[in-house]
């Protein structure tokens, strides 16, 4: 049985009426950048908990998760309402393999996120390991509207620190915004637009691809990559792409 840790909300930062970043304190032990933790609430006598990627870097004082309201879901509507000082529950065992130490050797690292799945990549990019392991990092962040492009300032800060090594590519599917691609990630790979924007090519010999977020994106990108001779990475059988599906 899970021995839940008690967490206390420090801040509930709402990006809009659907997206929020919840910062909280909890006596969680060590975790690796890119991992997730189960966060829960007691609802009508039962504990309802779901996995959430940690956005903060290991060692930061507070923990942070970034999520959207799923109106038909049991947890996100009440989680969205939490305020400073409120309690929540945190499972003691962070987990997940979307971490730098699980990646095979490659020259370039591509990080592809849909919506709230930008979180684990931010945690990774705040650390040092990724910058010493890879020559180039390409961060692809797909959202529907410009308003949904949360953490833009944090991303600019990271870009400013690693200008020569990182390329940030925002993809905004429902609006025409200057300096962004108006297409989904799989289409942008297939058309060559993503590589053109990054200035490097995607190939089995030099790229590793990380994907996080919607099952549709992961399925469609995987299909495109497989057609280029790239395969899913497994501990026992090293490959070219790693995935974490949120829904
Ligand atoms: C390893 C892992 C890490 C995750 N990390 C995050 C995270 O950092 N941020 C985050 O927002 N979510 C994350 N999720 C999804 C999260 O755990 C919940 O499923 C989500 O927040 C909805 O919770 P809920 O209880 O309200 O609804 P649920 O009962 O979990 O889901 C209700 C329905 O909504 C679908 N759904 C779930 N999430 C979404 C979504 N974001 N958009 C549209 N439909 C959805 C489900 O597939 C299901 O059909 C993660 C999932 C996994 C497996």
Structure in words:
It is a single chain. The chain is α/β, with parallel strands linked by helices. The protein folds into two domains: 5-90, Elongation Factor Tu (Ef-tu), domain 3; 100-245, Rossmann fold (3-Layer(aba) Sandwich). 21% of the residues lie in helices and 31% in strands. The chain has seven helices and eleven strands. It has helices at residues 76-80, 119-125, 129-133, 152-161, 185-191, 193-198, 215-227, and strands at residues 5-14, 19-25, 36-43, 46-53, 63-68, 87-90, 108-114, 136-143, 166-172, 207-213, 241-245. The strands form two sheets. The protein has a six-stranded antiparallel sheet. The protein has a five-stranded parallel sheet with strand order 9-8-7-10-11. Helix 5 runs parallel beside helix 7 (215-227). The protein is globular. The mean pLDDT is 97. It binds flavin-adenine dinucleotide. Flavin-adenine dinucleotide (FAD) is lined by residues 36, 50-53, 65-68, 70, 72-76, 96, 116, 119, 244, 246-247.
């Amino acid at each position: 049985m899970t021995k839940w840790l008690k967490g206390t909300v420090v801040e509930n930062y709402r990006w809009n009426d659907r997206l929020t970043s919840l910062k909280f304190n909890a006596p969680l032990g060590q975790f690796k950048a890119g991992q997730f933790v189960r966060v829960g609430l007691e609802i009508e006598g039962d504990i309802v908990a779901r996995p959430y990627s940690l956005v903060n870097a290991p060692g930061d004082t507070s923990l942070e998760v970034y999520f959207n309201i799923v109106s038909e879901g049991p947890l996100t509507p009440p989680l969205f309402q939490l305020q400073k000082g409120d309690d929540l529950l945190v499972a003691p065992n962070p987990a997940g393999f979307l971490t730098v130490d699980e990646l095979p050797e490659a020259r370039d690292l591509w990080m592809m996120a849909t919506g709230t799945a930008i979180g684990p990549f931010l945690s990774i990019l705040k650390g040092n390991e990724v910058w010493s392991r890879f020559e180039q990092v390409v961060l692809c962040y797909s959202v529907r509207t410009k308003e949904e492009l949360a953490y833009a300032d944090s991303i600019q800060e990271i870009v400013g620190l690693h200008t020569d090594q990182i390329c940030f590519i925002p993809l905004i599917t429902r609006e025409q915004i200057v300096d962004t691609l108006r297409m989904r990630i799989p289409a942008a790979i297939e058309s060559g637009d993503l590589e053109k924007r990054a200035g490097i090519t995607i190939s089995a010999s030099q790229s590793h691809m990380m994907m996080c977020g919607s099952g549709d994106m992961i399925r469609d990108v995987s299909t495109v990559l497989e057609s280029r001779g790239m395969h899913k990475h497994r501990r026992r059988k090293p490959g070219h792409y790693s995935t974490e599906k949120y829904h």
